[in-house]
Amino acid sequence: MKKKKLLLVTAIPPFPQDSGGATRIKNTIKELSKSFSLYLISFKNENYELSPEEKSDLNNWCKQIIYVPIGNHKIFGSYLDLGQPYWFSEWYSPELITIIKSVLNNQYFDLIQIETSQLLYLIDYLDKIDQKKCIFTAYDISTISFYRRLTEIKNIKQKIIHFFRFIEIFLYEKKYIQKYRIINAVSQNDSILLKKYFHPNRVFTLVNGIEKVEFLKTKEKRNDTTVLGYIGSFSHPPNRTAFLYFINEIATKLEENNINYKYLLAGNNDNREINCFLSKVPSTIRNKIINLGFVDSPKYFFQKIDILITPIFAGSGSRIKILEALSFGKKVISSKVGVEGINLNTNLISICNTSQDYINEIKIFQAKKNNLDYNQEKEKINQLTWEHIFKNYLASILLIIIPNSRKSLPKSNSAGI
Questions:
Q1: What is the mean pLDDT of residues 375-384?
Q2: Could you please report the per-residue DSSP string of 93-157?
Q3: Coil, strand or helix: which one is 305?
Q4: Which of 89, 169, 228, 358 could form a disulfide with 78 if both were Cys (CB 3.0 to 4.6 A apart)?
Q5: What's the pLDDT tens digit per position in 281-327?
């Protein structure tokens, strides 16, 4: 049976694989291409050149790919002029609007899927028929993310400015979310919050996943040293906060408890900023922090650590870095917000409320790490593969949007998500 046509529009490009959003969109493209003739429109950083392998993958997955350059600065007053919140104004693109109109005028699509809150506004530039085909995927609920950041800000002037930016985000999501026929949330918690605050027409949960389960052994020489780590770009503020919380709160207590550790930081970050942070902590802590910088493969990072430490206090959705850690069989010690949206009963996750809780969990891991039933844990984590998740997605949502499409769908063991 001939495949249906799907137009996928994303603010986050699938490559480079330098963020959780990039991981999600890459796997979204890969999995949807199994059932659709996929046409991709994506923003792209002009400074990044795709590798031959990346080009080959995209050409295999997509019938057509159109790139749009991202803006290089935010626009002050964009909400009053364009209806686009200041923090999203880089993604307001007349060029993108023109391209989408042209593509839709020249081709018929059975489904249009728009990814990330930065592009919610695009539905205003579609006709009524195309609007009825629209699905939106919310990688997080920006209103919740910005509210949480607001509660963290101490400076009064910055707090006032951020409050007005938060109101822009809220009004923007309230206006547009109701216009889409279906909203995909990336966690059950986000589904509940979307219904509570924005009353969308219909919400489905399309959770974040992992590519495969491959439990690793740590390659680092131990000498009774526990290797802790964190991976993430500081361009996303919660990642910076997590690192600062570790060096200022957790590391201090590790020293007080005479715990032998190393801490590896990975991510595309400014070395000068990291060195500035480290210059303010004692040398006993500073000497145990190793900045790996950008790593080409998450596997390279996770093979080096014993525990992923994720004291995250803002954002919503779910953290792909935590899912990746689980896929490699690594222990995760996290805040409640950090593991939000990951509904899995596993001994590999521990939740902490205080810095002392992190110390206690590290001690427990050191005492019991050889007693974990890794085969049992692997069975649980196998439920989280992207392939499994998208089979269920296709078997539920698309039958609503596209009647009589069952023959084109892959077989699934589940009728819903």
A1: 81
A2: -HHHHHHHHHHHHH---SEEEEESGGGGGGGGGS-HHHHTTEEEEESS-HHHHHHHHHHH---HH
A3: coil
A4: 89
A5: 999 999 999 999 988 888 899 999 999 999 988 765 567 888 899 99
SS3 label, residue 227: strand
Report residue 269 CA to chain centroid gap: 17
Helix (H, G, I), strand (E, B) or coil at 21: helix
CA 143 from centre of chain = 16
Show the tokens assigned to 170.
């809220």
**Claim to verify: residue 323 and residue 340 sit in the same structural domain:** yes
- Tens of pLDDT, residue by residue over 234-248, are 888 889 999 999 999
Torsion, Cα of 229, 327, 393, 100 (10° steps): 50
**Residue 354's domain spans which residues?**
226-380
Nearest to 62, CA basis, from 110, 9, 117, 135:
9
What CA–CA distance (Å, rounded) separates 255 from 289? 13
Question: Is residue 341 over pLDDT 80?
Answer: no
The answer to the question of residue 87 being in a domain is yes
Q: Are residues 401 and 376 in the same domain?
A: no
The span from the CA of 218 to the CA of 371, in Å, is 16
**Is the alpha carbon torsion for 251, 280, 292, 58 positive or negative?**
positive
User: Are 139 and 154 part of one and the same domain?
Assistant: yes
Q: Mark out the alpha helices in 283-335 (DSSP H runs).
A: 283-286, 298-302, 320-327
Measured in degrees and rounded to the nearest 5, phi and psi for residue 45 equal: -75, 115
Rounded to an integer, what distance in angstroms lies between the CA atom of residue 330 and that of residue 190? 25
69 preceded by a cis bond (ω within 30 of 0):
no
| CB distance 67 to 44 below 8 Å | yes
- Considering the domain boundaries, does residue 270 fall inside one? yes
For residue 380, give both structure tokens: 């649980």
Are 18 and 46 contacting, i.e. CB atoms less than 8 angstroms apart? no
The structure tokens listed for 167 are 């109101």
Query: pLDDT tens digits, residue range 97-146?
Result: 999 999 999 999 999 999 999 999 999 999 999 999 999 999 989 999 89
